[in-house]
């Protein structure tokens, strides 16, 4: 099972429909419990789009298609961030570190997304947790790309790093 199939299987309350009838610019659209996915797009783009639409399902209230208000834009950003954190999750990044997968190209292969998406996900984490933080015993330093290392006792004791 690939990552897209695995992601969709985690949401049995949603129905996923691949269609060739969507405009080229639109990757996916959720309406109630139906997710319509543009079948003309690449696998990587579909994975990214589906994760964002699930983000809309989990976080969005109302119809925000036209992005009329600041609240609509905020909800769009929240759904996008949900997608980033769902696909490029911190535990997966730790797994990559442990086996020596560290470049954006290798990370994109591991997570089955485009390299640009990796950088967007890292920006999401930076905006949410700061440039340096600890997760599950590993320090994430996002000041200059992605640097991960096991946390020292001193780092673990410093409450400013923890989330």
Automatic annotation (TrEMBL):
Domain called IrrE N-terminal-like: residue spans: 32-114
Domain of life: Bacteria
A Pfam family: Peptidase_M78
Protein name as catalogued: ImmA/IrrE family metallo-endopeptidase
